[in-house]
Structure formats: C-alpha cells, structure tokens
Fold each of these.
Amino acid sequence: MAAVLVAAMVVVLSVSVAESATVEYQFDVATMNVTRLCGSKSIVVVNGQFPGPTVSAREGDLVVVRVVNKAQYNMSIHWHGVRQLRSGWADGPAYITQCPIQPGQSYVYKFTITGQRGTLWWHAHISWLRATVYGPIVILPKLGVPYPFAAPYKEVPLMFGTCVRPTRWWPVISVRACMNCLSLLVYVRAQANGGRRTRRR
Ligand SMILES: [Cu+2]
C-alpha cells in the first residue's frame, strides 16, 4: 500500500514539474534618446525599448530576469502585483528588499508565479526612474487550462504613460502633469519581446 502511495506521489510530482517552465530574460538598462510630441530626450529604458519588453509566463513558471545596469544611476525593478512567496528578495523595492543595482553591476530576480493569471506590469522602484523604466507582465493559464472567459481573438497589452510638453518633458512626473497629458502607448506583444527568452521543459 505504501509503495503504491509513493508511486502515485512520484507521478503527481513529475506531472506538475513537467507543466512548469523556466522563463528567462535579460534586461539591459541604459539611456536612450526617445522622441515624443516633437521633442527628444535622453531617458533610461530596458533593451532599447520604451515601454520595455513584455515578460510573458504561465502560471507555475519560474521567472528569471537578469538585470544589467548599464546606466549611470542606481536601479532596481519591482514586479508589480506578483506574489513573492518565499522570494521576497526578488520583489525589487530598493533599500527595502535589496540594495540598488549600482552602475556596471547586475542582479538576478528569480520568482515563481503562483496562483495568478492576468496582466500586471513591472517598473523601476527607485527615485524618478520609474517614469520611463516599465513594461507589461502577461501571465497565461497553465498549458491545457482554459481562460476563465471565452478565448480572445487577439491580445494587445496597453501601457498608459504620462508626458508633458516637449520643453518640459518628463523633468518630474507630477499629478498635475498626469492630468495635462495622458499618452496612450499601444503595441503588439510580439513587437515588445526584445528580452531574451527561453523555455525549458
Ligand atoms: Cu509597483
């Protein structure tokens, strides 16, 4: 009887391992010139993209993001809304769960998506850098698990950002600036996947 129980547990464990994957990205943080509203400005971005690359994973996946800080500012990345179960050191707030990543240094964030599906976002979690360093997190259901609604024909993440007149572009993001101009940044997920991504089964 005990042998049967052990065998059953091994089967269950191997099935759950087979269903989860490791999703890896590299985020190269650096400054880049960006033009919006007829004005150009040097801002900090990830992988030369603004907004940054989409992190796409399935529920149960292990997400590994290596952040390489090539900018001249201290950096940290927060995975907004992602439950950090036994991985609090991967949450991202600088000076709270980690020291900031200094210029020329890197940090590997590792966390497992547990009990969550839907679209969240990631962003810098230090000083004003969060104004330009951000992007979507898309969490799909496990393979073989349907959406809790009719399957969509197509999915397009929308990122809402703020900008002000070109002469005063992003010097400070304030509530007033947010009210002045709300820019809609739309892009197809496939175009946003600049981060290196591999899946291991
Ligand atoms: Cu946040």
Amino acid sequence: MLRGGKVGLRARHEDDIPVLRAELYDDVVNSSRAESGPWRPITPGYQDPRLVVDDEEERRAPFSVVELEGGTLVGSTVLWGIDTHNRSAHIGLGLLPASRGKGYGTDVVAVLCHYAFVVRGLQRLQIETLSDNTAMLRSAERNGFVREGVLRSSAWVLGEFVDEVVLGLLARDWTRDAQAQVAVRTRG
Ligand SMILES: CC(C)(COP(=O)(O)OP(=O)(O)OC[C@H]1O[C@@H](n2cnc3c(N)ncnc32)[C@H](O)[C@@H]1OP(=O)(O)O)[C@@H](O)C(=O)NCCC(=O)NCCS
C-alpha cells in the first residue's frame, strides 16, 4: 500500500466494486462531469473496465483509496495513459460524496506524484478537469501542478459545453518538500 498523510492507495478488492459503482458511476451528475462519454445504466455484474482491474494492462495503474485510520473505502484513483517512451501519465480521481472536502483529494494527488515520479520513474504528469471543478484544480495546484491551457468548450456536460483545464507537473518541478513528506510516509 502507498501511504499519504490521511489516505492509503491499495489494490482494488472485489467488495469495493459495488460501492464505487453505486456512489460514483450510478450518479448521473458525477459520472457526466467526470467521464468523457455519456452516462449509461450499467447492468449489475457487468465487468466494467473502469472498476474491474486487469492486472496485465500495463498502461493503467488503478487503486482504491482508503482512510489510513480504519481502512474505510473512500474512492478510486488511477494513473492512466502510462507512456514509458515519453515517460508520462495522467491522473484520474473520484472520491465518494461523503469523503470530499476533507483534504483527501490533495493527499491522493501527492501519493500519486510519489508513485509516478519515484516508483515508476516518470517525468511528466497531466490532469484534465472541468474549469469549474475548483476542488480538483486546487488538489492539483497544491501539489505543484500548473495550468498549461484551456480546451475551450471541449466537454459536453448535461446540456452545455464546458471548458476543460489541462494541468501538468514535471518531475524536476515537484517540490523537494512534497517529495520528502511522501517518501517518509511510504517507508515501512
Ligand atoms: C475533486 C476531488 C477529487 C477533490 O478532492 P477533495 O478531497 O474533495 O478536495 P480537498 O478536500 O483536498 O480540497 C482541495 C481544495 O479544494 C477546496 N475545495 C474542496 N471542495 C470544494 C468545493 N466543493 N468547492 C470549492 N472548493 C473546494 C478545498 O478548500 C481545498 O482548497 P485549498 O487547497 O485552497 O485549501 C473530489 O472532490 C471528488 O472526488 N469530486 C467528484 C469527482 C471529481 O470531480 N473528480 C475529478 C474529475 S477530473
């Protein structure tokens, strides 16, 4: 398990799947804002690739997010689009509604930076999010991500086109403080 200050990132367990499905993917508004395609109902038992992990898929590293204290499931995160030639990847993240606004999102991004830059040796991370998603923008910026551009009207979200923001962080700009904090916590 990878450990941050408040949350841990561990492998997906079978019993995480119905919780994540009900609280993230069955929620039309959350799903429409977080996914690049339209919301559709998912048949119970369907091996949804967003939830059911394929350990042989080398371009994705999915995690379940749990509280360090008690181990309660609080969300899902993924390092996706892992490109070992350009040494880059993207971050995806969704927390259960009751676990938002507690600093967990910021902590997850910090842990994924450690995983990507230190464990995987990547040199660039990217996050795409809707321009009105203040919590995601702040979680990224708190970890040193900078806004690199705006994709105007690029996302169709529940009846309107919305801008997306592209944020990037290079390994060389990842702050020594952030690096040291996560490295200490992931030891042992
Ligand atoms: C986006 C998300 C991962 C952020 O995680 P979080 O744990 O809620 O965020 P944090 O508690 O770490 O807060 C980060 C910052 O955003 C601010 N913030 C949190 N919720 C906010 C809200 N609803 N509105 C405005 N600001 C908010 C916090 O005050 C904090 O700001 P600071 O760094 O200036 O102190 C989480 O809210 C979530 O899962 N949302 C739904 C799914 C989603 O949008 N995923 C991202 C798709 S790209």
Amino acid sequence: MPGDGHRQSQIRRTPNPGMADEPIDPSEIGEGDAPPVDEAPYKVIFEANKCIAAGKCAEVSANWTMDITTGIAKPDVYFFDEPDLEHNIDAAEACPAKKDRGVIHVVDRRTNEEIAPDPDGDGTLSVEW
Ligand code: SF4
C-alpha cells in the first residue's frame, strides 16, 4: 500500500484492540527521536494512508511536498517551532481528505492538544487508525 512504510517509520501505533473509541494520546506518537519540546513545541501527525494526493498542503505550506515515489504528501519536518506554525496549520486546514476532516494534524506538544484542523473543536487528536 503506498505510503504505509513511510507512516510506519514516523509513528508508533498504539495497540488498542477492541478499543476503537478510546482517544489516542498524541504524546505517544512519533516522540522516539523527537527534539526537546522547548526547541520544537509543535509537531505534525500525518495519516499518510488516508492522503488522497490532492496536493492542497503543498500549495500552502513549504513543509509539505508531493513525494513522486509514493504519490502522496510528505512533510520535510515533523517537529517545529513558532515560525513554522502558521503554514502547517494552513496545510492541516486545507487538506480535503477524510471528507474535509483532514489527515494532517498539528499538535501542541506542551498541551497535547490538536491545534488544527481540530474538526471536533475540543483539541482531541482526530486521527482514525
Ligand atoms: S492536502 Fe491532504 S490529501 Fe492532499 S496531498 Fe496534502 S495531505 Fe494528502
């Protein structure tokens, strides 16, 4: 499946058999090689397997490009500081995948809340693994 290897290299899946409605803790995802929170207080969590290759993210954010090998989007960095926050939020909000709920998630590592797209409006991580 395109993008699956990429996704697996970035995140560690939380095993939750039979607990699909359990909220996923953002702090458990992708923190293995992460820079310190005070250096990079934000991160993106990317549902690569649900990217529909619409390319909107790459139009609005320098952090996102279309990978010609996999055919889907790819972030240059997963962890970043304030200067890169706005355009990553733009990418998250522009993403039309999952019926506009989006597959790019910008998370504040200090509060563990999803800043964007936050379709539920409560800061919970809106991934659907
Ligand atoms: S906007 Fe969303 S669906 Fe489109 S390429 Fe970017 S991540 Fe994939």
